[in-house]
Amino acid sequence: MEELETTIAQDLLKINAVTLRPNDPFTWASGIISPIYTDNRLTISYPAVRTAIADGLAALIKAKFPDVEVIGGVATAGIPHASLVAERLGLPLIYVRSKPKDHGQGRQIEGALQPGAKVVLIDDLLSTGGSVLKAAEAATKDGANVIGVAAIFSYQLPAAETNFAAAGIPFATLTTYTALIHTAEAQGTITASERDLLATWREDPTAWGK
């Protein structure tokens, strides 16, 4: 999987889905000062990249969650990838809204979900895990057995490890923050000193840059 980690990291950098600016950081909506900005929604516009991601996620899920019975997409960014993966694995597809509809039947889960079905949720990105774990909670409330989460990329934040452990849900990603910054350094996109600066952010994002 190490080769796949590097390949996906290269793809994300190539299409500018990930931007690294250790010396001119971004400010996230949460107020966190960050040397990285990620927009994996861009991946759906690049056929070769989205194919590599779909193939990788399908293989990852088969390896990590072989008992999966249903693929679930987390709205909105996880839905296209979940659709492609469900097609590859020949499995039913559902998707989970961020909140229930305010009209009609008020559903938060769309698609046919059988009680006790073993579901793997797909999202495009894991930061603290908050949004996908809320989706997992909603799916569980609707009768699903969420056995895991799969995503394209993880920031590898300590909060994510804590939150997923507390929820009792394992997760796996195609590539990681560590793989990405090492790939960027190998390509000459960042220097060794910038790599070290980027590494310190992951250890404590709330204190970085202050």
UniProtKB/TrEMBL annotation:
Catalyzes the transfer of a ribosyl phosphate group from 5-phosphoribose 1-diphosphate to orotate, leading to the formation of orotidine monophosphate (OMP). Its cofactor is Mg(2+). It holds the Pfam family Pribosyltran. This is Orotate phosphoribosyltransferase. 5-phospho-alpha-D-ribose 1-diphosphate binds at residues 97, 101, 103, 123-131. Keywords: Glycosyltransferase, Magnesium, Pyrimidine biosynthesis, Transferase. Homodimer. NCBIfam families: pyrE. It comes from Lacticaseibacillus yichunensis. The keyword Zinc does not apply. Its EC number is 2.4.2.10. Residues 57-153 form the Phosphoribosyltransferase domain. Belongs to the purine/pyrimidine phosphoribosyltransferase family. PyrE subfamily. It catalyses: orotidine 5'-phosphate + diphosphate = orotate + 5-phospho-alpha-D-ribose 1-diphosphate. Pathway: Pyrimidine metabolism; UMP biosynthesis via de novo pathway; UMP from orotate: step 1/2. Orotate binds at residue 127. One of its GO terms (molecular function) is orotate phosphoribosyltransferase activity. The keyword Repressor does not apply.
